[in-house]
Design brief:
Elements: E1 2-5, H1 11-27, H2 33-54, E2 59-65, E3 68-77, E4 82-89, H3 98-113, E5 117-122, H4 126-134, E6 138-142, E7 146-151
Parallel strand pairs: 4-5
Antiparallel strand pairs: 1-2, 2-3, 3-4, 5-7, 6-7
Helix pairs in contact: 1-2
Length: about 160
């Protein structure tokens, strides 16, 4: 599994990754195919604008496996913490350990920097919450929609 910086040419792929996380949910709302795609495109643009406004210096990466793009990762490297803004995989890439591997790499980088990793996860995303817990993330706050989680590097590991 490899990663590279996302470019403007990746926009269609990044949309497909996002849509792959929401298409089944939105299809249950009774929209037609065209309406689903228009809604998802609008949501993708709004989400990207929100992320850019909140984290203008964030890094967006494309995740690869066997030279095929399979997901995306957005991370903000702050002076006090690393923020995992978003990680998403195409449906066919899920459940194969890719997400775990990406998160473990991020935790290793955080440990080298001596920084915690922060994230927000949708409360309905039970599988992601379970994975984060398995990797040592602890819940720090929650509301009706999202749970904030934090991972602390082991003491004495900063370089």
């Amino acid at each position: 599994m490899n990663q590279r910086s996302a470019t403007a040419e990746d926009e269609t792929f990044l949309y497909e990754v996002y849509a792959g996380t929401r298409r089944n949910e939105v299809a249950e709302w009774g929209f037609g195919t065209r309406e689903i795609e228009l809604f998802l495109q609008m949501q993708h643009r709004a989400r990207q604008a929100s992320y850019s406004a909140a984290y203008p210096d964030a890094v967006c990466r494309v995740i690869y496996a066997a030279d095929k793009p399979i997901g995306s990762l957005q991370v903000y490297y702050g002076s006090e913490s690393i923020v995992l803004i978003d990680i998403a995989l195409l449906p066919e890439a899920r459940g194969k350990g890719v997400g775990s591997a990406v998160l473990l790499e991020l935790q290793q980088k955080a440990a080298q920097l001596g920084l915690p990793v922060m994230l927000h996860v949708d409360n309905a995303n039970v599988l992601a919450r379970k994975l984060y817990g398995k990797l040592g993330f602890k819940e720090t706050m929650a509301d009706e929609i999202y749970t904030e989680m934090r991972w602390e590097p082991p003491a004495g590991r900063a370089t």
